[in-house]
Amino acid sequence: MTAGSRLLDIRELTIAFETSDSPVVDNVSVSLETGKVLAIVGESGSGKTLLARSIMGLLPPGAIARSGEIHFVGQDLATLSPQGVRMMRGDQISMVFQEPLVSLNPVVRIDRQLTEAGLERGVMSRPAAYARAIELLERVAISSPEAIMRRFPHELSGGMCQRIMIAAAMMLKPRLLIADEPTTALDCTVQQEVLRVMLEAARVDNTAVLLISHDLGLVAGYADDVLVMKAGRQVEYQPAADLLANPAAAYTRELLAAATVAQSAQAKPGAEHTVCTVEHVSIDYPVRRDWPWQPRTSKRAVADVSLDVRRGETVALVGESGSGKSSVGKAILGLTAFSQGRIRIDGELIAGDKPHINTRAQCIFQNPYAALSPRKTVWQAVAEPLQVGRRLDAETVTARTREMLEDVGLVAQLYQRLPHELSGGQRQRVCIARALINRPRLVVADEPVSALDVTIQAQVLELLGRLQSKYGFGCLFISHDLGVVETVSTRVIVMHNGQVVERGDTADVFANPQHAYTRRLLTAMPVLQFQADLGYRISHRQFSEATR
Amino acid sequence: AWSMSSDSNEIRVAITSDIRSSYPGVNRVSFTDDVMIHVVEPLVAHRDDLSVAPLAAERIDVSDDLTQFRFTLRDGLRFHNGELATADDVVYSWQRILDPATGFQCLPFFDGSTGAKVESVVAEDARTVLISLDQPSAVFLEQLAYVQCPVAVLHRDSWDSDGKWLAPVGTGPFQFLEWRKGRYVLLKRFSDYAPATGPASGLAGAKTAHVEYLRFLVIPDVMATTAALVSGQIDVVPLLAPVNALELRHNRRVVAMDHDGLSRRTLLLQTDDALLSDRSLRLALAHALDLEQFADVASFGLSPHNPSAIPTSDVMHTAAQSKTWSYDPDLARQLLEAAGYNGEELVIITSRSEQAIFDLAMIAQAMWSRVGINVRIEVLDFGSLLTRYFDGDFQIAAFEFSPRLTAIMNMHTLIGDKTASPARWDDPRAHDLLQRASETVEPIKRQRLLDEIHHLLLAEAPTINVYNAPIIDVVSTRLEGYQPWAGANPRLWNVRKTE
Amino acid sequence: MSSYFLKRLLMLVPTLLLVTIAVFIIMRLVPGDPVSMMLGDIENPELVRQMRAELRLDDPVIIQYLDWLADVVTLNFGVSFVTGEPVIGTMLSRLAVTAQIVTISVLLASCLALVFGTLAAWRANRRADLVISVLAIGSMSVPAFWVGIALIIVFGIKLQWLPTVGYVSPLDNFSESLQFLVLPIMALVVAETGGLLRMVRATTLDVLSKDYITAARARGLSERSVLFRHALPNTLIPTATLVGFTLGSLLGGAAVIESVFTLPGMGRLLVESVYARDYVMVQGVMIFVAIIYVLVNLLVDMLYPVLDPRVRLRA
Amino acid sequence: MKLRPNAIIGIAGLGLVAIVAIGGVLVSPYQAMETNFLNRFATPSASHWFGTDEYGRDVFTRVAVGSFITLRVSLAAVALAIVAGTVTGAMAAYFGGWLDRAAMLVSDSIMAFPSLLLLLGIMAALGPNEWGVILALAIAYTPPITRVVRSAVIAALAREYVTSSQLIGNGDLTTLFRHVLPNCITPFIVIATSVFTAAVLSEAALSFLGLGVPPPAPSWGSMLADSRNYLGINPWMAIFPGIAITVTLLSINLVGDALRDRFDLRMAGGD
Ligand SMILES: Nc1ncnc2c1ncn2[C@@H]1O[C@H](COP(=O)(O)OP(=O)(O)OP(=O)(O)O)[C@@H](O)[C@H]1O
Ligand SMILES: Nc1ncnc2c1ncn2[C@@H]1O[C@H](COP(=O)(O)OP(=O)(O)OP(=O)(O)O)[C@@H](O)[C@H]1O
Ligand SMILES: [Mg+2]
Ligand SMILES: [Mg+2]
After folding, report:
1. Cα pseudo-dihedral B436, B441, B444, B446, rounded to 10
2. How many other C-beta atoms are found inside a 10 Å radius of the C-beta of residue B240?
3. What ipTM was assigned to the predicted interfaces of this complex?
4. Taking CB atoms and an 8 Å limit, are B363 and D214 in contact across chains?
5. What is the pLDDT of residues D100-151, one digit of tens each?
6. Per-residue pLDDT, D265
7. For chain A, how big is the Rg over CA atoms in Å?
8. Does residue A318 line the site of ligand 1, with CB under 6 A?
């Protein structure tokens, strides 16, 4: 490996914000050769994005590279003029971002977003640019690319948008493609596909790829080298194969363990007391009428669903987006009316005619940031449920709040912080504390860890389990992430188009899915397995069509 | 391309609001009068000294008992449509005016509701008209000449076949050409005009139109008006407020011409008010004002204080009419004490639509506050002020009476019956004196009666007259022959415009 | 889309009812009536009685309102108390004047605001931004009549370049009419640009922090393309909303500017009619102004799907 | 937090106005309503720093006293409008349905109403006094605040913390006032500053129509309106209150901007 053949060479790079002294990228050195794939992996906030952006010269305002050098094809990028850096972008180095839907300009048609860079530079004629765009769209496996070219981004799915972002990045045959969490925002069924398509497209043009992710399991299979980062520092840097086989750093092992299939939670014996029963519930949402004289119509979101949750037990509700999982949860919480059936919580009947809030059931939401009042401190958020309705004396409130906060593992320095001053995991802990402080009988957890990265996911799930055994609440766990479900639940209910298509003990369903839809879900999920001699390995489940 | 200055064929006059209609004496405001004096001619008109002269008529014969008035029309009196004016036209014009449906504003002058009634108007021959009254009237000719309500000689073509007003077809030196609502009124020289004989004076006498066009431009904003004047976009700004004229006096492109005015600016005191019914309090208000300084400040030194209802320029305004209340704060305080005044709030109503009326209230309030009279100023828009005036609904009102051309008419704006006009001074002694004065033809006797009224006014203080509004017409130096006059309307005949 | 349009038009009905009722009440709360305004200090009680009867001012207000409403429904807006002219004709001719100066100046102001607002956001918190922001706030903080007077003094009196009073219709003489429009348009542009600009700046700041802007930069686009081809189109919707509000309320009359420059526009018509207590005219103008306001804003709403393909109008 | 140049200019401007206002009232040997007809239209001099007006009153004293009146009227009007607009806007957004429709109908109607006529009518009904001015301005400026608050609340309602508040058993009003409204602070600051700006200017326009704070009490608006007649004689009469208005509004807006940024959690990180 000679210096000359290196495409990208980052030497002892340190990046910090003007406002603080501690660097966010600390003394990182890494290099990449033409046509190779380098993965950068690390938890949220470890500085991956800033590292990538510093290569592009697109650091956010206030961030500065304190020391170190970035060489691209032997040239120190710091010596380039702003104009030079700009000319390099897109042409030599291009980038794909995490959120496809917000990385495409919503009011500009796809064709222009694809072709404008080439046209502006005058390196392509209009027909040539168009032809190249079509070629790339085909390469990223988009059918009928001509039609897609005339569309606006909102008319396309997230997966398609991300493919288009990839095509846009590849337009000028860059020598380096930086992909910052290119699949994190996508449904798990398309994640693999998009990643594969991207790497394939890059390979055709012999483009090197810098792949950023927090999911080691997802990317390790594709990368030549892996750089593991934590808190801005380089933890481990080795060829992918070596890393999987023989992770050196403890942190790397932690990451790998978090992504590994866990043993199914055992059904807890003796949990006979049912805290929640749902019998033949259907939920209709009114369809908006244009005129008052039009007949009222409604759309059935949930049809004839029954389930029960017992004390101390976790029941998982899985299904694709829009299948009605959240609607069931909302009906149980009394947040939405239901048209048929019966719901009992702790034996008491919930009326379905209109929303009836029932404080015996509480909820943990997907996005902990959105679920916390932005201007209430941690303490206020957690103590508030105690102050509603009942008049508890201040000492009791203080004592119980403190106990609850300690239970979820939040330290005293955090009590007076506002939500935006917390990390994602901390925020979710606050949400959990807030939900549990009044000792609800049932907790509906609606995608509680989907917005968290893997290491934190594991912590939160572990916490939830611990609290469940302490307080004994029943838990309805809504998720589309089967890996998580497998870990936490005793029973699984699979929904599709508002109906239950399959139900059973977790182990049974995962081992032997009956419904085609369940199988599809399970197949899409990559599995990282640990074998004592070989280290970690990535595989996919296989089911033969015959098992019915 | 646009030229900043109007050409020498056209004189442009600023008016601050539109003319409402082209129907003289009916749906009118003072700007209607300004336009109409150029377009129509009544039988008689005021001279500069406010005496009455023939205009459409060339001869007037009055019977000794003051009931029969015979008018002989001017030779060659011709309508703008080319037809000669006849006695029949005069009769027709009178029929219109006497018809209540027309809504002639000064109908009370002629229908017997105040004084004499017009019994008949008869065409004796083609050029002679006889008007008969039911009782003698010493003021009939003056009423006929009244510029706000001219009994104009109009051709039948001024109305359509249904009797609806179209536009004036009159006999004046200019003819009515175009009215763009809200923007301007355009008059054109009437080339077949045969002027009356005698020197031009007031609205009477020989008139010649020297310019082809006369344009009355509606410019409500005074700042815009003065800017247009100094930049040569307009030629005449009649009746500018003294303060606005002040800055123009140094401008070499314009001249400010001053003249004594007839409008009376006054502080009306409501004698029916619980507090102000006390004469001592009213007198205290009068003595607390330094009226000389008041007039000087308010008129920017152009008009003296005039305590009388009769304008200073009127021949009836004698030394006796100049007698006023002394400025005596101590006396004022004593009178306040006598009235048992204890700092009760008095309210003066005024309006901002005219700076002078506003100033009246402001200066009075400042002077009164110096002797400890607690006066609050209530600013109304002009419409509200008028209504409050008509209803007599005020304690003190800052007010201005538009020009009345005779002493008697002016006295009528002061004295009146509270049931009909609650703002007026309702004192039997004053009524009696005024009644006798209107019936007296003998000037010296009449003068004595008027002086007695003023004497009574000083004793009773039902109103504190401050000064007569000065007339300031500012005109471009390009105009030759322009003269302001007491009647205040801008007169653009016999005026030339140089290049 | 068409049902959206219809529905919004239907919403106009209660708005207009409310507006007209308020106008009726307000005009009759304000003391002074049209007859006394005409007569001034002349005393003629018989004529007052006669005219009040003719104008039906002595009927109960509710009867007056219902009668008037019945006429309006048949598109008869009545005739002015003051001039005897049909209200509708007067309004249309006045609207033509106001519409000219207002639309031109709002368009100009919007363009200025878009360009300089975008620049200010681009250079956020640098010197250029500071200067632009201070100028913009300055323009918002200066009373409109001040601006008008300053323009008259400079261009009318000192330089004598442009006329300051009156108006010529472009149909009569196009080049001459332009000369009369320049100063009022300048005054309105100065007065209106500030608010729009600040709006554009704030929105652009927001847009510039979006990922698609970073993505556009990452594709190597020039800053000009990034600003004007990617950021600007995204600021158009909120800007259009504000432009709609501004246009809607100015079309109802830029009374101050109209009177400073002696333009026969809607604003002056309204002010003068209010002062003259020309009830019928005021009512007509008000209903007209309200319709214009609602329609202009409706049109702007209809523009949304054009400006932003994501928007679908729903009633 | 480091102050940005805009904020510094704004604070300095407000300081200047405060110094003139307080200093003026303390230092000036004149009374705001004290006339001297022998010394009218004086230009600035040692004895009258800002000159005198048409009644020989000291302009410096009037600007100083006027600042209290102007700010009192504008602040009271804005405060009223804010309370009314916030309550109606928030309720309309939160409860929706006919309440929302009625609130929007009324505010649309008020906004479609030319402000002149509105102000004239309200003043006529209430009489020309300070409270009348305050109420008239408040009514005229409630609808824009209603609209802004309404859309901010609608946006906030889509966030899950609202559901969370309902789930723990909070009533509608508690949720609305404790959880939703505090998070609408940034658009709120923006609209409040711009309404304040409009209120100060409208007070001037009202004075111009003779409907402002009753004379002879000085307000900047009425001083400016009065001075219009005397521009040719003594332009200082217009310049000083004009500067006072412009400096105040400029400063308030700059400080408002800074406050907005300060309250903007997004700028401090977060999602
Ligand atoms: N604009 C900013 N101002 C201040 N600090 C910032 C800013 N952007 C990022 N940071 C901080 O810099 C650190 C690194 O951020 P970076 O975005 O590189 O993390 P990341 O590894 O990409 O995380 P994620 O997986 O969440 O995208 C974080 O601690 C973050 O809080
Ligand atoms: N308030 C509502 N009004 C009308 N339709 C709704 C409403 N809430 C949900 N729906 C519809 O009901 C269906 C089920 O929605 P639900 O939110 O329960 O799905 P989900 O399984 O939770 O999906 P996701 O994984 O995306 O959260 C969807 O088609 C959705 O569009
Ligand atoms: Mg990142
Ligand atoms: Mg859901």
Report:
1. 30
2. 21
3. 0.81
4. no
5. 889 988 888 888 887 777 777 777 677 677 888 888 889 888 998 898 888 8
6. 63
7. 26
8. no
C241 three-state secondary structure: helix
Terminal-residue alpha carbon distance, chain D: 21
pLDDT of residue A185: 66
pLDDT in tens, A340-377: 888 888 888 887 777 777 778 888 887 777 888 888 88
Inter-CA distances, A228 with A181, A263, A459, C271, C279, Å: 14, 26, 19, 74, 80
The beta-carbon neighbor of D197 closest among C22, C29, C140 is C140
Binning chain A into helix, strand and coil, the percentages to the nearest 5 are 35, 30, 35
Q: How many other β-carbons are positioned within 10 Å of the β-carbon of residue C234?
A: 22
Q: Does A417 touch chain D (CB under 8 A)?
A: no
Smallest Cβ distance to A373: which of D179, D185, D270? D179
Give pLDDT, residue B138.
80
Q: Is residue A49 within 6 Å of ligand 1 at its C-beta? A: yes
Spatial distance between the Cα atoms of C236 and B378, rounded to a whole number of angstroms = 48
pTM of the full structure: 0.83
- Reduce the DSSP state of residue A139 to 3 states and report it: helix
Q: Note whether D242 contacts C: Cβ–Cβ < 8 A.
A: yes
For residues C31-62, one letter each, b for 16 or more C-beta atoms within 10 angstroms of the residue's C-beta and e for the rest, the string is bbbbbbbbbbbbbbeebbebbbeebebeeeee
Q: Is A13 helix (H, G, I), strand (E, B) or coil?
A: strand
- Chain C, residues 147-176, CB within 8 A of chain B, namely 149, 152-153, 156-157, 160, 163-167, 175-176
Q: Are B383 and C27 in contact (CB under 8 A)?
A: no
In whole angstroms, how far apart are CA D137 and each of C252, D12, D75, D206?
A: 19, 28, 10, 10
The pLDDT of residue A191 is above 90: no
- pLDDT at residue A271 in the model: 55
With a cut of 50, list the residues of chain C below it in pLDDT.
315
Q: Which candidate, C121, C130, C146, C86, places its Cα nearest to that of C285?
A: C86
Residues of chain B with pLDDT under 50: 1-4
> What does residue B476 show for φ and ψ, rounded to 5 degrees?
-65, 145
Closest CA to A363 of A385, A342, A344: A385
pLDDT of residue C315: 45
Q: Report pLDDT for C16.
A: 87
**Closest C-alpha among D70, D83, D218 to residue D145:** D83
Length of chain A as a residue count: 548
